[in-house]
C-alpha cells in the first residue's frame, strides 16, 4: 500500500507539496455538538494554554476569570462543570499529510481531563492533540474579541471551520454529512432535509459570520441530480472589521517597543493600536524623540500628537510649533473621544453577548418540557406578530427581542445577570 511508504519531503513537488500545506491549514475538526458556551470555553482555555501548550503537561486558570470571559455567572459552578464535562466528551479528529508526505489520521478527546479545586480550573490536552493545536498551519487560534460577538453556536462553529481556510480562499467541498457533523446537527432527521438545513442552519450562520467577524463567506452547492450533496464556502477578509485582528495582541506585547510604551504610561490597547497602525520602527523613533525633549510635562500626550498628528520627526528635527502641537492635540482629543464612544458601544455589544450566553446556559439546564413551557409563555407576552415570528425563527438568540428576553429571564432567574452588569 503506497500510503505506508516513506516519501522524502524533498521529492514532493508541485501540487502535492502545495496540497499538503493547504490541507494542513484546516486539517483538524472538532465535533460540532457543543453549545455556544462550551465552544467559547474551549477557545478561552486554548488561548490561556497556548504559550506552554507543548512545554507543560497541564494548565491552570482562575475559575472566576474563566467564567467572566465566557459570559456567565461566576458563582454557577454547575454550569462550568457541565461545560468542562462536555469538552472532555468531545472528539477532535485530524486527517492530514505529515512533513514526510505520509497520511496521518488521529483522534483525541478535546480535553484529557479537567478539575476544579480552590477556585482554580486545571486541565490538560493529550500530547498528540497539543502538538496539532500549537501548530499554526494546522489550527488557527480564534480571536476572543470576535468570538464574543457571536450569539449562536451554529454561527461560531461555521466561523471557526471557515476561518482556518482564510489563506486559501475556500474550504473545499464538504459532503453534507461532514457539514452536519461540524454544525452538530448530525443524527437529526429534521436536518436530513436540505431545505431545513439551509433555512435553519446555513443561512442564519452565514449571515452572522458576515455581520460579526473578520471574514466574509459565500456558500456554494454541488448537486447530484436534483439533490444537494456537497457544500463549500468561498472566503475573503472582511476589511471593515480587520482591526479585530490586532486585538489578541500577543505578538505585539512581546515587542520591546510595547515595553517602552508601557513604561511611558501608554495603555495596553492604545500601545497595540499605535504599533499596529504605525509599525515598531516609527513608534520607536517617536519614543526616542519624545525622550530627548526637555521639559515635556505630558510625554504620552506629546507622543500622541507626534504619532496621530502626522508629524515626521527624526531625532535631530526641531519640535513642532506650539500652534501645530495644540492643533494636533485637539485632533488627538477628538479621536480619543470617538474611540471612547466606540469603546462604550463595544462594551454594550459585549454585555449583550454575555447576557445571551447566560440565557443559553440557563436554558440548556432545563428539561424539554420546561423549555417548551418557557417558549410558550414568552410568546404569549409578545404582542407584535413580527416579534413573534422573529422569536419562532431564532429562539432565545433573537436579537430583535433582546430586551424582552433579558427581562423575561431576569424575572424567572433573579440575579442571572448580576455578575455581568458593570
TrEMBL record:
By what name is this protein known?
A: Replication initiation protein
The coiled-coil segments of this chain are: 329-357
User: SUPFAM superfamilies in the record, alphabetically?
Assistant: Winged helix' DNA-binding domain
Q: Which InterPro entries match?
A: Initiator_Rep_WH1, WH-like_DNA-bd_sf, WH_DNA-bd_sf
**Family indicated by similarity:** Belongs to the initiator RepB protein family.
Task: Tell me which UniProt keywords the record has, alphabetically.
Answer: Coiled coil
Initiator Rep protein WH1 domain segment(s): 21-162
Q: Do the record's keywords include NADP? A: no
Q: Name one Pfam family in it.
A: Rep3_C
